[in-house]
Amino acid sequence: MARRGSGGTPATVALEHAGIAFTQHPYQHDPAAASYGLEAAEQLGLDPAAVFKTLLAEVDGRLVVGIVPVSGQLHLKALAASLGGKRASMADPVAAERSTGYVVGGISPLGQKKRLATVLDESALLLPAIYVSGGKRGLDLGLAPEDLVRLLGAVVAVVADIGR
To answer: Which of 93, 62, 95, 57 is nearest to 78 (CA)?
Structure first.
């Protein structure tokens, strides 16, 4: 099992511990990149519809995770509704980092310090593999979307504005 000292991140450790197959895709992160997710797709030569960003929001005052393609935006009303809430807003970046243990631009849905309610955009289930942050800038992980849902206990719903 990978340990932090040997290059593993909490995300890779969580996947290995759960016995879930995944691939690691490191790339050279550019601190001047305008979009972390689009940078990952471009650097790795992946379709942006298959690369997913992990966003933290507040739904009725509690932190939650929304996972949507980097080619789209998180639809806050849909996120709230998918969790039985009324109002949603993007979380403060400092609160997101404190809750997850990751830095913005490297927040993985996996291996977070606190388990939060999570919603994955249903477009993920149309793909054989999706790519999410590996827990640091410059690392994405590829895995089956069904495995991500199972490991996180995620709700699957339409929560992305991607021009469907």
So the answer is: 57
Which tokens in the block code for residue 136?
A: 């640091």
> Where does the pLDDT of residue 4 fall: very low under 50, low under 70, confident under 90, or very high at 90 and above?
very low
Tens digits of residue pLDDT in 92-146: 999 999 999 999 989 999 999 999 999 999 999 999 999 999 999 999 999 999 9
Residue 33, CA distances (Å) to 8, 25, 28, 59 in order: 24, 18, 11, 29
3-class secondary structure per residue, 66-133: EEEECCCEECHHHHHHHCCCCCEEECCHHHHHHHHCCCCCCCCCCCCCCCCEEEEEHHHHHCCCEEEE
CA 70/CA 28 separation, integer angstroms:
18
- Tell me if 157 sits within 8 A of 123, measured CB to CB: no
Could you tell me if 91 and 115 are in contact, meaning their C-beta atoms sit under 8 angstroms apart? no
Structural element, H or E, at residue 41:
helix 36-44
Closest CA to 141 of 149, 151, 130, 150: 130
Residue 34 contacts by C-beta under 8 Å, 6 or more apart in sequence?
A: none
Token duo for residue 158: 């339409």
